[in-house]
Amino acid sequence: MTTVLLVIHLLIALSLVGVVLLQRSEGGGLGIGGGGGGGMSGFMTGRGTANLLTRTTAILAASFMASSLLLTILAGGGQERAGSIVDQLPSSLSTDPLIDQPVEPATDESEPSGPSVPLQ
Questions:
Q1: d(Cα 3, Cα 70) in Å, to the nearest integer?
Q2: Nearest CA to 30 among 5, 54, 2, 14?
Q3: Burial (Cβ within 10 Å: 0-12, 13-18, ≥19) of residue 62
Q4: What is the pLDDT of residue 76?
Q5: 61 by DSSP, 3-state: which?
Q6: Which pTM was predicted?
Q7: Are 46 and 29 spatial neighbours (Cβ–Cβ below 8 Å)?
Q8: Measured distance CA(68)–CA(64) in Å, rounded
Q9: Using H for helix, E for strand and C for coil, what is the string for 69-104?
Q10: Which of these ranges, 34-48, 73-87, 99-113, has the smallest mean pLDDT?
Q11: At 4, which helix (H) or strand (E)?
Q12: Which residues fall within 8 angstroms of residue 63, CB to CB, at 6 or more apart?
């Protein structure tokens, strides 16, 4: 199921890239129609092509988002819901949860108390 949905998701993504690349930056679509350029002047007007490509882009974008959500749900569906990391914190941060005694700050006695940069 996941593999089929992943293939469909990739096809939608490639189609979306193709449809976006077909659009002109001015919103004129393919530029076929009208008297501008292209040989199929009676096929579609520039405005009709722009509307078709805009609607196609919107449909493909919605399909891409829906398939992304479905893939996310399917990917995490077999796992148990983990609790929050805040729930795992001990009630008092000053005690060690394993021995239930106050924790002393660690001091390193082996470190010399001098300048940290060697003198030259």
A1: 12
A2: 54
A3: exposed
A4: 81
A5: helix
A6: 0.50
A7: yes
A8: 6
A9: HHHHHHHCCCCCCCCCHHHHCCCCCCECCCCCCECC
A10: 34-48
A11: helix 2-22
A12: 12
